[in-house]
From TrEMBL:
Name this polypeptide is given: Coenzyme A biosynthesis bifunctional protein CoaBC
GO CC terms, sorted: phosphopantothenoylcysteine decarboxylase complex
Cofactor field: FMN; Mg(2+)
Domain of life of the organism encoding this protein: Bacteria
Species per Swiss-Prot/TrEMBL record: Duncaniella muris
Gene name for this UniProt entry: coaBC
Chain spans, region Phosphopantothenate--cysteine ligase: 11-226
Record-stated family: In the C-terminal section; belongs to the PPC synthetase family. In the N-terminal section; belongs to the HFCD (homo-oligomeric flavin containing Cys decarboxylase) superfamily.
Signal peptide, first to last residue: none
Catalytically driven reaction(s): N-[(R)-4-phosphopantothenoyl]-L-cysteine + H(+) = (R)-4'-phosphopantetheine + CO2; (R)-4'-phosphopantothenate + L-cysteine + CTP = N-[(R)-4-phosphopantothenoyl]-L-cysteine + CMP + diphosphate + H(+)
Interval of the full protein contained in this chain: 182 to 407 of 407
Residues given in the record as CTP binding sites: 100, 110, 146, 160, 164
UniProt GO molecular function: FMN binding; metal ion binding; phosphopantothenate--cysteine ligase activity; phosphopantothenoylcysteine decarboxylase activity
Amino acid sequence: AAEGDFKGKKVLVTAGPTYERIDPVRFIGNFSSGKMGYAIAEEFASRGAEVTLVSGPVSLSVKSPAIRLVKVESARQMLQACEEAFPQSDISVMCAAVADYAPADVADRKIKRERDEVPVINLVKNPDIAKTLGSEKRYGQILVGFALETDHEFENAVGKMQAKNLDMIVLNSLRDSGAGFGTDTNKVTVMTANGGRTEFGLKSKQAVAADVVDSIAGLLQKQTVS
Ligand code: C5P
């Protein structure tokens, strides 16, 4: 990790879960802690980047003054915040665990418990933020995604990288205990659109963030050379 190697670079990071409201007191969400995304944002900031961190609801705080925190709740709000920051961003890293579906309508009062009837919640598909940004990506912009796969992990990750027009995808290995949601450690494989694949060992999310940012520095270097 070279000091200040991201000086002058603008970076967008998404982190955390999204909450999709059902009624004023309930939501559909997931167990994403936001730790991986926050660690990546801090790593970029410590290396001189100007970071916009678009975060779903988490119980973490930002340490570096070089990080502008944009708090959102739902996938739609997250997309909107990303659309604002993306055109100016040199590098965008999609770490958020975006809910795939949202309730079709939000009840304006708390849904009451009925004696016989069980309520039905109709769902609609949420926007794919990474894919949307991928379709808007300009020459020179770098877009990085994360993938959590259980089977055919490499093929699926490559498929996602292509479908979303990503330059790099970070595959979380779920086979290893200590990797993934809620934990303080992670084990990843970094895959690039030009066919590169690097497997890293189990380490702290801070150390994984440094590896991911190093890998992105490598991509940038290739861009400027070619
Ligand atoms: O398709 P899948 O959810 O497995 O893709 C994961 C990657 O796409 C992650 O980088 C995640 O942040 C991003 N994503 C997104 N918006 C969605 C779903 C996933 O940005 N609605």
